[in-house]
Amino acid sequence: MLPSIFLVGPMGAGKTTIGKLLSKQLGRDFVDCDHYIVSQTGADIPWIFAKEGEIGFRERETRALAELTEQSNIVMATGGGAVERAENRALLKKGLVIYLEASVDTQLFRTKKDKNRPLLQNDNPKEVLERLYRIRHPLYQEVATIVVPTGRVFPKQMVANIMRMLPKYVKSS
Asked: Is 58 assigned a ligand-binding role in the annotation?
């Protein structure tokens, strides 16, 4: 049996897009951790950041990950910063973790018009993305079972490539 699959990577890497396509291929439920947090709180992420700060949001994220990583047979997209907490990295290791690796330029291109990313609402989003990459890239690698570069092929081709890799991670029950 294939364990639950958790997608990690920076904002703009395609975690939600790939997650939805992958879950469809596998016949599994898809959960976006950020959307789950919004549904649980009734408030969007920019509002949570404005009222509770990043620390308040990260607390909510850890609680959501604790709940979601207990579910079996799902595909979950995490938020880009989920890996920064050691507790979250330990939770993610309950499943098969796919790191969608995206260059800073790819992230910048994909997020430039997105107002729903509180960390990028400043004068120099590229500098923010570069700083986050330096901090988070080693953490994504630490939790990753599989690393998949993004920005080179279309999402459906990426999912086909991932599907070819998955059989070696099937565990007999």
From this structure: yes
- Report whether 136 belongs to an annotated binding site: yes
Task: Reduce the DSSP state of residue 145 to 3 states and report it.
Answer: coil
Residue 13 marked as a ligand binder:
yes
- Taking only the tens place, the pLDDT of each residue in 112-150 is 666 666 556 667 778 888 998 999 999 999 999 999 999
Q: Is 15 annotated as a binding residue?
A: yes
d(CA 145, CA 41): 31
43 belongs to an annotated ligand binding site: no
Q: Is 12 annotated as a binding residue?
A: yes
What confidence tens digit (pLDDT) does each residue in 69-90 have? 999 999 999 999 999 999 999 9
